[in-house]
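Record type: ASSEMBLY
Status: queued
Input:
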Amino acid sequence: MGEPLELLSAPLVIEYPFNRTTGPVIGAFLTGLRDQRVVGIEGDDRRVVCPPVEYDPHTGSPLTDLVAVGTEGVVQTWAWVETVREGQPLQQPHALALILLDGADTAMLHVVDCGSPDALSTGDRVRIRWAEERSGSICDIECFERVGGEQ
Amino acid sequence: MTDIQMPDQLWTQPAINDAALGVSADVEQIQRIRIPAAVRYDYVPGLATTRFLRGLANKEILGERCQTTGEVYVPPRGVSPIDGLPTVEQVKLPHTGSVSTFCVVHIAFGTNAPPTPFCTALVLLDGAAVSVYGPIQEIDYDKVRIGMRVEAVWVEDDQLDTSFENIKWWRPIDEPDVDPELLKGHM
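Status: finished
Output:
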């Protein structure tokens, strides 16, 4: 003891391998994504909630009627992710956006691959870019991209 | 899709109309997803544990002595748990000790776990005040007992690292058992 000592350091990973059941509603949504379809669910007020939820957000009653929605939509609001962290859906800088799909009345959160924040505006139309290999996961939507927009 | 059946007295979820999915009834629907969650740290063990781990890389088990009681703590934390003062004297401990308690493992996890059932134990090294943890091997799991004398089995020299995993396991040595009463309070 006494002489200078170089401190050790080592990676330490604490991981929980959660395996959860989806229930019939989320399960149907993910099944649809695997098949390149998007479904929402009709609320008591006939509004379409997408991604679908099991219970009406206002009345709490169980919802049962799935509704097909579009694979294009409108960016309602967004934030730019300049520094990409491990585990994020895209490995290059991208937008995190709330996207109102055609036929839906609520927006879903996903990423938009558009190169730079200058290329994206609220109100832009975007469409789904599907992952080549799909397994029934939200990542079956690789990302959204601008419709007709050059990057 | 059919109703999900729940036990009586619990709620049930009504069947959903999934015609909009456009999939035939024989398509297997998603029912489970894996969502692993991880937190990734860079762990810095601090000065005392760094001293201990560097010792292990040289096949040395280094404890540190409390200035007040003279007891030796291993792994050292740099301060005595008795008086809160720094431990300033390093003590090289032998590679032998006594099983102070043990547990039979039937469901193992981790990549280096031995075949089940096996024993993990706390081993009170000779001259130490507290026990270190490790698996017991080279003996049937149901022959392990408190007070049994054991020694460390190290990895090959070319695999030594700054890690407690340098000690692969502990194995019995041919010495009489220690009176378990003497091990009390030294876990």
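Annotation: The interface with chain A takes residues 1, 4, 13-23, 27, 29-47, 49-51, 53-54, 88-90, 162 of chain B (CB under 8 Å).
Annotation: Chain B has a mean pLDDT of 91.
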